[in-house]
Amino acid sequence: MGRWHKTLGLALVCGGALAGLSQPLPAATSSTLDILSDERTSNGSDTVDIGRIAPVAQQSDEAAKPLPVGNPLWSVPLSVLTATQARPIFSASRRAPQRAVVAPPIEPVAPAPAPKGPERPPLALVGAIVGDRDAVAVFLDQTNQKIVRLRKGEAHSGWVLNSVRGREVTLKKADQIETLGFPSQELLAK
Are strands 176-181 and 135-141 parallel, antiparallel or unpaired? Predict the structure, then answer.
């Protein structure tokens, strides 16, 4: 029989607890602080008076300020949240991205100047006239495609006409001497 009483008591306690859950309970983060059961407005049927309890700490002016509305973390500056910066929430590895290292720009190296061989005159012999007292050579300047006539001793582009003989002429620049001749008939036929 004692067992039956225990089971009935347990059923009544559980039923009473379930009946109490059907009514809304006050939230743990209520905006009204220190509400005692006798300060609530109710009909008194579901309340138990356990006496008046005085708060331990005195209320200050800070408690009189209105509580912030919305997310309480909005009032916290991001500079204080160092753990969030070190371990980002939305990163898969929860590691901060590594800073990019920018290498200094590479300056192109100028190619070494090719060793200069003997300089060639920019002229191609087109014709030559040899007389008793005078000689004239006719050239095509290959830089601008113009005809140039030189007498013996005259200069063009630093090259001086030194001599004119039948099918060839000799040009001189400083200590360098170049001989130009007519192209061969085989080259002209091509």
Answer: unpaired
